[in-house]
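Good morning C.,

I know you're traveling, so I'll keep this short. The sequence:
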Amino acid sequence: MAYFKFGVDSFIWTEDFSDKDVWIIPKAKELGFEVVDLAVAHPEKFPLDSVLKAKNETGLELVTTTTLGADTNLISPDPMVRANGVRHMKLMVDINRAIGSKILGGVIYAGWGCLTRRPRTEQEWEWSVGAMKEIAKYAQDNWDGVIAVECVNRFETHFLNIAEDAVQYCKDVGVGNMRVHLDCFHMIREEKSFRGAVHACGKEYLGYVHVNENDRGIPGTGLVPFAEFMGALLEVGYDGPVTIESFDPSFEELAANCAIWRKFADSGEALAIEGLANLKRVASAL
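The tokens, ready to paste straight into the viewer:
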């Protein structure tokens, strides 16, 4: 039986993690998860003391993800907006250092959902890479974790859709803490091969993994070839968290942005419980 460090995203329960949601951390432990991914929308309001208390009480590993928006977009023509994005990311680095997280992932290279209705341009690439160099160097000087850029589907960004491009982005940033964040939900729309995408990253560049079903429903009940994907993770020696992420249709902003119009389980928690059991069954056969 192959061992994987399974995690759960705070999005399972809330779309805007804050002090009222810190109970999620002990709940994740109760459900059998080893890692909690804190999805941070507003780093300036992060409940640091409460999170640290819950982490110390549970012993769970914490990682974070975030997204940039129209006002923090690293590919905006407005230099003030790009500077806002750099500030957002530096604050995220500070949070990760404070909570002992080793991974900062998500759509952090451009504004999530900020589509230009045209292919990525060389100017956009230069803007994003330049801003990320500043962020990555700040992180390298202040923190011992990695920044993992998440390639997402064409309906959510025109900037990074596939692992190969994300690896090139990391190489162009050129700071040793840059990695790629893979997510099965996006991969099934954009990659030619799950195994191929994992190997395109390899041990050197694969930094974080979300294990989501093709419809954002319960992992193991849809089209994602989890045996192939998880087998490839073993082949390249990935030893980081594999985290379940989904959203409830009652979430206002998040569900609208992700086009979640129906329930995939009785609750987000039920989805996580069944998904974990299914993923453990896959792992047991590897």
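Safe travels,
E.
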